[in-house]
Amino acid sequence: MTSLRIEVHGMTRQFGGGAGVSSVDLDVAAGEIHALVGLNGAGKTTVMRLLLGMLRPTAGTVTINGQPLNSADWTTVGHLVETPLAYGELDGRTNLILAARLHGATRTQAAQMVDRVLAELNLARYAPVRARRMSLGNRQRLGLAAALQHDPQVIVLDEPTNALDPAGVILLREALLRRAANGTGVLVSSHHLDEVARVAHRITVINAGQVIGSLDPHGVDIERSFFALVHADDTQHGRSMA
User: Distance between CA atoms of 99 and 78, rounded to whole angstroms?
Assistant: First the structure.
């Protein structure tokens, strides 16, 4: 039986004005890339923040590698949610070494990790550049490098292709496929349906804070299927503008 890297049951968190997520069920298996898609404001980022312990759910359970959040081994997790975390006055290499050390790497291991990921994401020429002087796209690559370099068992990425040029998108795609092939479970959110369809084994659709269905990554017209699901859900709940 395939082990689950992430398992979410009934996860709920409500905010003022009716925003939030409700009764979310979601799982990611070892070796799987699972995409969470939805319109802006659908709840994708909230789901990711909840399952990473950045927010507390008001109901439901979350386990990472079979462990509840309060006892999860975070050295086995890599994530990038919203904006890349980098110290602007430090160069790219130093930022990555610090991230590796925070994930439990020794000095020697950290240096090796950084060399590998700089090459993998074509960031070597930016290693001596201070983060604050990098372009938005290269800061995004730096954040992705920090999330991927320690070969985590669980990867959670929120809109990871934001600001990336086509070459960067391809490098990220290949990096995720390699890690999934080695048993990593990957959860990635996006509103770029064509891109997630290239890498995802499963696609789950979220709308207005609830999971409303799934899409076939190999479907003929995935965008049409997505909007049909969202429109049907909005109509059912009286949210349609039509």
Answer: 10
With 0-12 CB in 10 A as exposed, 13-18 as middle and 19+ as buried, what is 5?
A: buried
Do the domain assignments include residue 140?
no
- Residue pair 214/192 in contact (Cβ under 8 Å)? The answer is no
CA torsion 22-186-191-199 (nearest 10°) is: -140
The string of pLDDT tens digits covering residues 99-123 is 999 999 999 999 999 999 999 999 9
Residues of the domain holding 67: 4-82+153-236
Count up the domains in the chain and report the number.
1
pTM of the model: 0.94
Residue with tokens 């960031």: 123
Nearest in space to 232 (alpha carbons), one of 204, 196, 202, 208: 208
